[in-house]
From TrEMBL, chains A, B:
Pathway: Cofactor biosynthesis; NAD(+) biosynthesis; nicotinate D-ribonucleotide from nicotinate: step 1/1. This is Nicotinate phosphoribosyltransferase. It comes from Clostridium punense. Transiently phosphorylated on a His residue during the reaction cycle. Phosphorylation strongly increases the affinity for substrates and increases the rate of nicotinate D-ribonucleotide production. Dephosphorylation regenerates the low-affinity form of the enzyme, leading to product release. Catalyzes the first step in the biosynthesis of NAD from nicotinic acid, the ATP-dependent synthesis of beta-nicotinate D-ribonucleotide from nicotinate and 5-phospho-D-ribose 1-phosphate.
Length: 488, 488
C-alpha cells in the first residue's frame, strides 16, 4: 500500500476542532466577512529540549485531512441543536468547499522558531476552520521527529528502533509517532500497523512472557531458536543476565543454531546496568566465538542516556527506544501557533499583528516569503530570512543580515545561494503538490540535517541560528507596533 | 449518540500491536501451546507527579477494541510476505475469535501501584495478542484522568475546561484525552468532536484572530456581542488588557448588551500576569457594576500554577487548561505493564514470576483478587489487599495488614467493610459488562476520590497508601523467588 492510498483513513475528522472556530465563523458570516481573504501563518516559538533546530513533520496528514473535509448531515443537526448558529451558517457548512491556497515547507525540513511552516490564504471561514487540525497534526509529528533526530544523533551511527506504542498518548500517537520517528532516522518500529499501512519496517522478537510461559529459560530460548533460526534475538534478563540469560543463550547457539549452520543474531538487555552488562556480555560472547551476535538495549532510553552509555564504552549495537521517544518525555509539547498575519482590503494586503508585552512574542505580520541562505563553498545553511512575499534575494550581491530584536547586530554575507523553503500544496483548494513517499521524506530529512553546521547539532548550548527579517518587512512590523502603541 | 454507538469507530486497530506479539504467538502455536490457559495482569508501578493515587480510565475503548478484533485477508497477506509465519498460524489469525475472560476495575476507580487494573485469563495466543492495545489504551487515558484530577483539585471548586486539542499528541490524544479529562472532573472541552460523539460539553468563544480581523478591538467586541448576546465572553489581551481590552469590553457591555437587557458573561485572559491582571479586572468590572462577569484564564496552566494563583488571591472563576493537561506535560508517561502471572498446567494454576534486582519490581504472581477495605465509621478507604483469587476477606474479624517489603510493619484493622474492585467484563469472549455512560463514570469517579483521606490528595508528600499481600499470596511469592534463586 502506498502513502497515497493511506489517505483513506475512514475517520472523518472534520469535527475535530475547537468550538470557537465555529462560533467565530458563524459570526464572520453574519457580519459580511464570508468572502474576506486572509492569511494565516503556522509557526512555533521555542525549540524543544533547548535544541538547535526542529524538524517539520505532518504535512501529509494535513493534506489528507483537507482532502476529506466534509460536514455531514448529522454534524449539521448536532450544531443546529446548539441553537446559536444561523441557518445561513449551517448551509455554508453543508456546502463547505475548501478553496484556499496553502504553502508549506516539505516534511523533513529543518525549521526554526518564528518561521511560517504553513501559510494559508483564503476566505476567513475556511482558513479559520482548519486551525485546530493543522496545529494538532504539525505539532505532534514535528515534536516526535525533532526528538527522534536527537536520539539518532546521540547514537552516533548505531541503530535506533522505535519501541514506544504501548506508552504512546493514544493510537494516533503510536501510529503517526512511529512515522515521524522513521522519517527522522529510526530504522523501524515495533508497530505492525505502521508497517502494513505505511511501509515502516516492523521489528521485534520476544517478551518476558515467552520465557515465563516455558518456565525454564533454556527451553524457552531453544524453542525460539527452532522457530526463528535465521533471526534469533534472545531476551536475556528475565531471571539474571550473566548467570542465566547469557549462558543459556550461548548453549542454544551451540546446541540448536550451529548444528543448523546458523548464528545467534542478537541478545537483548531490558533492565539492569546497561554499561556494565553490555561490556560483560560482549566479552563473554566474544570468548565463545559469538563475535557477530549483536547487543540490543531497551530500558527507558533517550538521547542523554544513550550519549552517556556510549561515553562509558558500552557495547550496544542497537537501541530500542520507547516511552521517552514516543511521548518526547523531556518536553512533550511542540508549541506551534496559527496566527492571522494579513487581510485583503480593497485589493491590497493589509498586514495584521498580535502584540505582546514580550517583544519577541509579537507576531511577524504580512504575507511573507521564507528563504534559506547556504554558504556557496560548503553548501551549509547560514541564515534564514523572512521577506515580503514578493521580495527577491539576489544571490549575486552581498546580503546584510540584521537581528530583528537587536538591530545593531549586523552581518554581511557573500557567495551564497538562496532557496525559498515553502512550496505550494493547494491552489484554490486543489492539491497541486506531489506527496513524496516515506523513503523520499526520510532521505530528504537526512540531507536537511546534513546541511547544518555541527555547532547547531550539539545538545549543550547549540549555536543560535539566524532567522532575520528583510529590511522592508522589519519596517512594516515596526510601523504596526507604533501604530497600535499610539492607539492604546 | 450514546457511548455504545460510539463503539463503531470505523478503524480496525487489530494490527496495532508490537511485532513480537506475532512472532511469539506463531512460536506458541508451533510449540503446542495453542490451548494453554494463562493469566496476565495489567498494572502500573509509579504514580505520576509523585501523587498519592491514580485514576483508571480507558476500559470502554479496550472493550471496543476487543469487540472489533478481526484479521482481514489483507492483514494475512501482509504477514505471509514476512516469510516467517506458518500457514497454521495465518489460519489461526484468519479465524481468530476472542474467548478469554477479562476482569477490570471500572473506569474512574482510584488505583495504586502493583494492583491488577485488568486481568486476562485465556489461551496464551489471544491473551498475548491484545497486550499492546490494552497497555496503550489504559496507559494513555489513566494518565490524563490522573493529571486532570490533580488540576481539578488544585482549583478548589473553580471550573476546569479542557482546551488542549491543538497540542495533543495525535487525534486520539485529543479525543480520548478530552474524555478522560471530563471523567476526572473537567466541566467540558473545546473539542467539538467529543461533544458530538461522546456528549462532552463543547466550550469556546473567540480567538485573537477575531479581534485582528476587525482591526479595531471595540468593533470586534461589538460584533461578537451582537452575534452572541446571551453568551458573550470577550478575549481582552490582543493589544493591552487594562488599557484597551477591559475598557472596550465594558463599553460593549453598556452600549450593546445592556440595551438588549443582557449581561456580559465573561472576559478571558490569555497572557500576562494572571494574578495581577485578574485582580485589576475584577476591581474595574465591579466598579462598573459588572459583578457577575466571570473571569476566565488560559495561559500555560497546570495544578501548580493554579494553586499558586489562588494563593495569591487571583480572581479567576474558570481555568482553561491546554497543553499541560492534554499531554500530562510534567510526567507524560503512565508506565503500565502487562505481565504473565500464571499458567494452567494439568488443571492446576501454576504461578509465574518475573524477577528483578530491585525487590519492589518483582511481579506479584498468580491469579489474584483485589480488595479495598473501608473504615466502617467514615467509609474512607484504608488499605488495598491482593489475595489469591479464591480467598475471602471476612469483615467480621480483625484483619492483619503487613508490608510486603518490610514485613515486620504490621497493623490490625477492625470495623471495616471490604469490596472486590475488579468486575467481570468478558466471559469466554462475550461482553458481560454493561458499559456505564460517561456521566455515570464521571459521578463514580467523584465518589471514588471522595472516599480518600485528604492526606492522600495533597500534592506534597502525600500519605503512602497500603497495598498489601495476603499472607498466602506473600508466601507463594517468596517461595517462587527462593526457587529461582536456587536455580541460577
Amino acid at each position: 500500500m502506498t502513502m497515497n492510498e493511506f489517505l483513506g483513513d475512514p475517520r472523518n475528522l472534520t469535527m475535530l476542532m475547537d468550538y470557537y472556530q465555529l462560533t467565530m465563523s458563524n459570526g464572520y458570516l453574519s457580519h459580511g466577512y464570508k468572502d474576506t481573504i486572509v492569511y494565516f501563518d503556522m509557526f512555533f516559538r521555542k525549540i524543544p529540549d533547548k535544541g538547535g533546530f526542529a524538524i517539520a513533520c505532518g504535512l501529509e496528514a494535513v493534506v489528507k485531512y483537507i482532502e476529506n473535509l466534509k460536514f455531514h448531515e448529522e454534524d449539521i443537526e448536532f450544531l443546529r441543536d446548539k441553537k446559536i448558529f444561523s441557518e445561513d451558517f449551517l448551509d455554508y457548512l453543508r456546502n463547505f468547499k475548501f478553496t484556499c491556497d496553502v504553502w508549506a515547507v516539505p516534511e523533513g525540513t529543518v525549521i526554526f522558531p518564528n518561521e511560517p511552516i504553513i501559510t494559508v490564504r483564503g476566505p476567513i471561514l475556511e482558513a479559520q476552520l482548519i486551525e485546530t487540525m493543522v496545529l494538532l497534526t504539525i505539532n505532534h509529528q514535528s515534536l516526535i521527529a525533532t526528538k527522534t533526530n536527537r536520539i539518532v544523533r546521540a547514537a552516533q551511527g548505531r541503530n535506533i528502533m522505535e519501541f514506544g506504542s504501548r506508552r504512546a498518548q493514544g493510537y494516533d500517537g503510536a501510529i503517526y509517532g512511529a512515522r515521524a520517528a522513521y522519517i527522522a532516522g529510526a530504522i523501524g518500529s515495533s508497530n505492525v500497523y505502521t508497517d502494513k499501512e505505511m511501509g515502516i519496517p516492523a521489528i521485534g522478537t520476544m517478551a518476558h512472557s515467552w520465557v515465563q510461559l516455558f518456565g525454564d529459560e533454556y527451553e524457552a530460548f531453544k524453542a525460539y531458536a527452532e522457530t526463528y533460526p535465521d533471526n534469533c534475538t534472545l531476551l536475556v534478563d528475565t531471571y539474571n543476565v550473566l548467570r542465566s540469560g547469557i549462558p543459556n543463550a550461548i548453549k542454544v547457539s551451540k546446541e540448536v543454531l550451529e548444528p543448523l549452520g546458523k548464528r545467534l543474531k542478537g541478545i537483548r538487555l531490558d533492565s539492569g546496568d546497561m554499561a556494565y552488562l553490555s561490556k560483560e556480555c560482549r566479552r563473554i560472547l566474544d570468548e565463545e566465538g559469538l563475535w557477530d551476535c549483536k547487543i540490543v538495549a531497551s530500558n527507558s532510553l533517550d538521547e542523554f542516556i544513550i550519549k552517556d552509555l556510549i561515553s562509558q564504552g558500552a557495547y550496544i549495537d542497537t537501541f530500542g527506544v520507547g516511552e521517552r521517544l514516543i511521548t518526547s518525555k523531556s518536553e512533550p509539547v511542540f508549541g506551534g501557533v496559527y496566527k492571522l498575519v494579513a487581510v485583503e482590503e480593497n485589493g491590497e494586503i493589509a498586514p495584521r499583528i498580535k502584540l505582546s508585552e514580550n517583544v519577541e512574542k509579537v507576531t511577524n505580520p504580512h504575507y511573507k516569503g521564507l528563504w534559506r541562505l547556504y554558504e556557496g563553498k560548503t553548501g551549509k545553511a547560514i541564515a534564514d530570512i523572512l521577506t515580503l512575499h514578493d521580495e527577491n534575494i539576489d544571490e549575486t550581491k552581498p546580503y546584510v543580515l540584521f537581528d530583528p530584536v537587536f538591530t545593531w547586530k549586523k552581518k554581511v554575507v557573500e557567495n551564497f545561494t538562496a532557496k525559498k523553503l515553502q512550496v505550494k500544496i493547494f491552489e484554490k483548494g486543489q492539491l497541486v503538490y506531489n506527496l513524496p513517499n516515506i523513503e523520499e521524506i526520510k532521505d530528504y530529512c537526512r540531507e536537511e540535517v546534513n546541511s547544518l553546521w555541527d555547532e547547531l547539532k550539539r545538545f549543550e548550548n547549540p549555536h543560535n541560528y539566524y532567522v532575520d527579517l528583510s529590511e522592508k518587512l522589519w519596517k512594516i512590523k515596526n510601523d504596526l507596533i507604533e501604530q497600535y502603541r499610539d492607539k492604546i
